[in-house]
Amino acid sequence: MLRLVLPLVAAAAISTASFAQAPMPPTFSTMTPDTAYASTVKGVNIYNQENKSIGEIEDIAFSSKGVDAYIVSVGGFLGIGEKYVAIQPSSVMLTWDPANKKWMAKMNATAEQLKSAPEFKYPK
Q: Each residue of 72-95: pLDDT tens digit?
């Protein structure tokens, strides 16, 4: 019986090793002129339907699922009294303006709605 079990265990060990996943070879992407980079989206003002600035994209929160939120600064003047709110990406229409070669952001909200939104604090 032992003579039968040992070869089966050895075969299982060898077959498991052969099924171990090797690192995938790299895949490369090609960027287009309208590709968004965190560095170019940071600092973009968000305008509402009345074309009034209601906030500014300060950061982008990512996870393994993709973009989770835009971290937007609202309120305040020259950095005093401002707070951060986390906005779902689906709430912000981010578009490329080819004529001016810059990003534009619009949102269907008022400055008061953003000021009264829950404050986002960076985890420590």
A: 999 876 667 789 999 999 999 999
Q: Which amino acid is at 88?
A: Q
> Is residue 6 a contact partner of residue 28, using CB atoms and an 8 Å limit?
no
pTM over 0.70, yes/no: yes
- Within a 10 A sphere around the Cβ of 6, how many other Cβ atoms? 10
Contact 34, 98 (CB under 8 A): yes
d(CA 97, CA 44): 12
Give the domains, in start order, of the chain with CATH numbers: 38-115 (2.30.30.240)
Residue length, the chain? 124
